[in-house]
Structure formats: C-alpha cells, structure tokens
C-alpha cells in the first residue's frame, strides 16, 4: 500500500498505478486526498470489524481474541500513518474517528464477551482496557520496535486475562 510505504503524502499517481486504474478514475472516485484518506481509513476499520466476526465463526474464543488483537496492532500502524493527515485535512475529523470507534468497540466487546462466556477469561475484564494498553505501546512509536513490543503485549494481555483454573 502506497500510504504504508510513503506516508499520507504518497503520490496519488502512484496510488492509481498500484490500483491499476488511471489517474482520472482515481480522481473521479476520490476528488481530494482527504476523501481518499478517509476511504482508506474506513476500509481498514471495516476489515478489522469483519475480521472479528470471521474469527468468531472459525476460531476458539481465545484464538479469535488474540488474532483480532494482533490485527488491531496492524490497524494502529495504519492509523499512525494517515491520522495526522486526516487531522489536518478534515474540518471535523471527529466524525470519521467516532464511527470507527463504535465499530472497534463492538468487535472487541463481542470477542471478550464470547471469551468470558466460555470461561476462558476473567469476567471483570473491560474490553477497552486491552485496546488502551496496545494504543499506549503505540504511542511510543518513535521506538523502532514498537510494533514487535505491541505484538508481545498481546500475548501478555491474553495470559493475564485468563481464568486461573
């Protein structure tokens, strides 16, 4: 993805080439960089929400929660790349982030609720605490190994959340 390689200021012509469309097609669908960045951000959040539903159908509760949290780490990375541009380009960026927050909240709530119901994790776990911990690690993103640290933290959070049997 061009934004991942080059940041939010990636060349729109390069993005069109990568998408195998002409620049006119790109500009017709996304007349401004702002609209393209919003679409990318919303798409990433949609994929994250859909993954939660998919994992629930195909994995055990703990496997699904762990896999989704690892995807959340990847989503943090994407957000860090495009959020600064969204914040400066969009007049009211809170609307974009608010709808995304609701989808993320819904996904993590369902995954944690399922793991609590199965008896795998503590019933006093607050789903957003898991995400806050991961976002906290991401806030030290100046460190070159923040992503690896966040991925390790997923396992620490999962282990610490489990019911001791």
Task: Please provide a brief summary of the model.
By secondary structure, the chain is mainly alpha-helical. The protein contains eight helices and no strands.
Structure description:
The chain is mostly helical and 165 residues long. It folds into 2 domains: 31 residues, no CATH class; 129 residues, Tetracycline Repressor, domain 2 (Orthogonal Bundle). It contains 8 helices and no strands. The mean pLDDT is 80.
Summary keywords:
165 residues; mainly alpha; Tetracycline Repressor, domain 2; 2 domains; 8 helices; 77% helix; elongated
Which secondary structure elements does this structure contain, and how are they paired or packed?
Layout: H1 2-6, H2 12-18, H3 23-29, H4 33-58, H5 61-89, H6 93-117, H7 127-138, H8 146-161
Query: What is the residue-averaged pLDDT?
Result: 80
Number of domains: 2
Largest sheet: none
Instruction: Specify the number of helices.
Output: 8
Could you tell me the CATH topology label of the largest domain. Tetracycline Repressor, domain 2
The counted number of beta strands is: 0
User: Which spans of ≥5 residues are poorly predicted at pLDDT below 50?
Assistant: none
End-to-end separation: 44 Å
* Rg result: 18 Å
What order do the SSEs take from the amino end to the carboxyl end, as H and E? HHHHHHHH
Helix content: over 70%
Content of β-strand:
under 5%
Shape, principal axes of CA atoms: elongated
The CATH architecture of the largest domain can be given as Orthogonal Bundle
CATH C-level category of the largest domain: Mainly Alpha
What is the CATH superfamily classification of the largest domain?
Answer: Tetracycline Repressor, domain 2
User: Could you say which structural class the secondary elements and strand pairing correspond to?
Assistant: mainly alpha
């Amino acid at each position: 993805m061009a934004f991942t390689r080059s940041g939010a200021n990636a060349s729109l012509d390069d993005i069109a080439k990568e998408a195998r469309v002409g620049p006119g097609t790109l500009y017709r669908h996304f007349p401004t960089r702002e609209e393209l960045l919003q679409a990318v951000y919303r798409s990433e959040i949609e994929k994250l929400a859909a993954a939660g539903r998919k994992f629930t159908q195909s994995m055990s509760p703990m496997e699904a929660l762990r896999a989704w949290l690892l995807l959340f780490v990847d989503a943090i990375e994407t957000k860090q790349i495009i959020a600064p541009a969204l914040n400066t380009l969009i007049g009211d960026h809170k609307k974009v982030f608010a709808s995304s927050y609701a989808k993320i909240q819904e996904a993590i709530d369902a995954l944690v609720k399922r793991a609590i119901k199965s008896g795998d994790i503590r019933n006093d776990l607050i789903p957003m605490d898991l995400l806050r911990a991961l976002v906290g690690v991401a806030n030290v993103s100046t460190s070159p190994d923040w992503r690896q640290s966040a991925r390790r933290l997923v396992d620490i959070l999962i282990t610490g959340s489990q019911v001791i049997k």
